[in-house]
Amino acid sequence: MKYPVSFYINGVQYDFYVTPATSLLSLLRKDTHMTGAKEGCNQGDCGSCTVLLDGMAVKACLVPALTIAGRHVITVEGLAVNGKLNPLQQAFYEMGAPQCGYCTPGFLMAAQGLLNKNPKAGHEEIVEAISGNLCRCTGYYKYIQAIEAVVAGKFAKEEVDDG
Hints:
Number of helices: 5
Largest sheet: 5 strands, mixed
CATH architecture of the largest domain: Roll
Structural class: alpha+beta
């Protein structure tokens, strides 16, 4: 049996009919074709499916879609505004943090969740925030450096001129 659920993804309201077993990750990838959140382990171990739920980092593979009615989801596709990278995306790019890129969206979202909670996070908090994200290509050093650069204000968000 399917049940109606309505919530926001990147600021846009979506209405779905889902089974109790339908995960947020499944909806994102299969029904909205937002594939930035990756399907890695499907058990919450790798972090490649990390998104923001009401501003907090969560693993979308573990979130039943029926539990998020009326809530707000931000995916990696929603970080950039009007085609302009957000500070974390810019820092990751300019500092060469990603290697293959598969895990990068999850790292971005875990870091954004931390900065939403604590924009002045220290080194240990950063390490803790990304500890649930696995990367097989590189060490975590460049990811940590990029997040620390954002915390230090080296990649400040510019004001958008609306006209």
